[in-house]
Each structure stands twice: as C-alpha cells, then as structure tokens.
Amino acid sequence: MVRRELKQFLSIFAGAVVVLPALPAPVRAADIMMAPHRAVYDMSLATARGGSGVTAVSGRMVYELTGSACEGYTQNMRFVTQMTNQGGNAVITDLRSSSWEEGNGKRFRFNSSQYRDEKATEVTAGDAARANTADDVKVELTKPSKKDLSLSSRVYFPVQHSIALLAAARAGKTMFRADLYDGSEKGEKVYDTVSVIGRPRPPGSSPQLPKIKNAEELDQLTAWPVSIAYFEPGSDKKDAVPVYELSFLFFENGVSRKLFIDYGEFAIQGEIKEIVFHPPSKCDQK
Predict the structure, then answer these.
(1) Within 10 A of 42 (CB to CB), how many other CB atoms are there?
(2) Residue 132 class from Cβ within 10 Å (0-12 exposed, 13-18 middle, 19+ buried)?
(3) How far apart are CA 136 and CA 154, in angstroms?
(4) Cis-peptide into 279, omega within 30 deg
(5) Helix (H), strand (E) counts: the chain
(6) What is the CB neighbour count within 10 angstroms for residue 147?
(7) What is the pTM of this model?
(8) Do 182 and 193 form a contact (C-beta atoms < 8 A)?
(9) What is the chain's pLDDT, residue by residue, as a tens digit (286 residues)?
C-alpha cells in the first residue's frame, strides 16, 4: 500500500496545468503564465497513526516544468524515499515520471516507472487525446499492456488542472471541482477532485517561509493556501472519505511550497530547498 500511495503522490503533484468553458470569468486560463522552473523538495514523515507501520520517511523530490502554452508543457519528476517500518526494515522507493501536455489541453503523453530497492516493479505509458476540448478523451495505453480507454470530456489533464485552479483562485472562487486524469494506477484512473482555496496572501505576506536562493521572486507574488481532496470516481455522498488530501501554498506562477499530503494512516511533508527559474519560452516573449 505504501508504494501505491507514494506513486499517487508523485502523479498528482504538479503537483502539483487551457481553455475550458467552465473557467470563471473574467479570468481566463490563457492569462495564467506558468513559470518554467526546477525545484528540489526535501520530504519527511509528518505524522503516522497507529497501525500504519511507518516509523520514518526521508527523501527528496525533484520537479521540473518547461515549455509554455504555445509549445506545450513538459513535466519531469523523480521522487526517492527511504521508508522504515516498525521492525526497523527500510525500503528505498524510486519513482520517475515524465509527461508532455499540449497547451490547449487536447493531448497528454505520459511515462512513469517505479523501482523498489533498485528493481523495477511497474511501468506505465500512454497517450491521451481529444479532437476538441469539448470531445471525449481517447486513451491509448502501451504499458503495462496495450489497452484503449474512453474518458469523459470533463476530464482535466495535470497542467490543465493547475492552470484552471489558479484561474479559479484569481477569480475569487473558494472551491473548484474537477475530474483529473494523470495516468496513475496503470493509466486507468480518473479522480474526482475537490479543491478548497483559502484567502489570497498578497506579495510579501509570508515572511515565515525559509529563505532559499532564487525564491525572492516568489516574495513578489500572490499565493493561496490550497487543499485538494482526491476521491474515487462517483463518490458523491457527503460522508465520502478521500483517498488522500494534498495541501500546499500555491503561487500565481505555478510554484508550490509547504507541501503536506495526508493518506489517513500517515502524512508526508515537504519544503523547497532549491529552486531555479528557467528563461521564459521564446514564443511567450513575442
């Protein structure tokens, strides 16, 4: 269960993303500029409840976003952790993910792999596409086996979802619900997500955050505390329990800080230790 949950964390971060008709006016997805960057997060165990079997977690996640709306977005992530159980046994999990997403949300290619103690345990790859943003999504999986899927037109891809979430925050919305497809669970999973958006924090209002090199740019930006609950498809009941919840401070350029992911039995936290901003795309400079 631990390996599956960590893979879910990797696939939904982006962590934790244009144009869909449901976006709030007057803010448009096209107005959201995602900053190309590379961020390194130190991860650790925040809490462990009785019966989880987890006593310690240490690790590091490297996340990189490149590209733009006009040329598409590329996301690369690697998340290596060492988890220790009550018996003192440690397992090293290495999760790797790479994806490319068309800027208009019409196509999403993904490839991920998982290793346990340096041995490959799972590989997933596929291509999802729709002719127009209002059309159903057709998915062609090539790994772990060839399979075709048809998904609702309501589905958001990862970068598309992040952009829509930022647009909702900028429009003053406090909640955003969306079906999210990110290629997780062997490429067959669609999550029903409910995002709660807190009050905006104006530039310079987060002095308690640790100072790191190149983060000065974030001090000049508005940010929102965001919590996203991930539910199984069809979980419409009021008492439904999310599979997990991801909380973070979301800056208007798409960078996240103060990560916290709660799986119920245990929770992981992470903070940026290094960040480098890449030059903007040439097509964004036109």
Answers:
(1) 14
(2) exposed
(3) 8
(4) no
(5) 3, 15
(6) 14
(7) 0.85
(8) no
(9) 444 444 444 444 443 333 333 433 445 666 788 999 999 999 999 998 877 788 899 999 999 999 999 899 999 999 999 988 888 889 999 999 999 999 999 999 999 999 999 898 899 999 999 988 788 999 999 999 999 999 999 999 999 999 999 999 999 999 999 999 999 889 999 999 999 999 999 998 766 777 888 888 898 999 999 999 999 887 665 667 888 999 999 999 999 999 998 988 889 999 999 999 998 877 755 4
Q: What is the dihedral of CA 277, 281, 285, 286, to 10 degrees?
A: -170
Tell which phi-psi region holds residue 188, choosing left (phi > 0), alpha (psi between -120 and 50) or beta: alpha
**Distance of alpha carbon 44 from alpha carbon 69, whole angstroms:** 33
Separation in Å, CA 2 to CA 206, 228, 256, 264: 33, 20, 24, 12
Structure token pair of residue 94? 């290495």
Of 47, 123, 59, 120, give the one whose Cα is nearest residue 90: 59
| Residue with token string 């144009």 | 19
Identity of the amino acid at 212: I
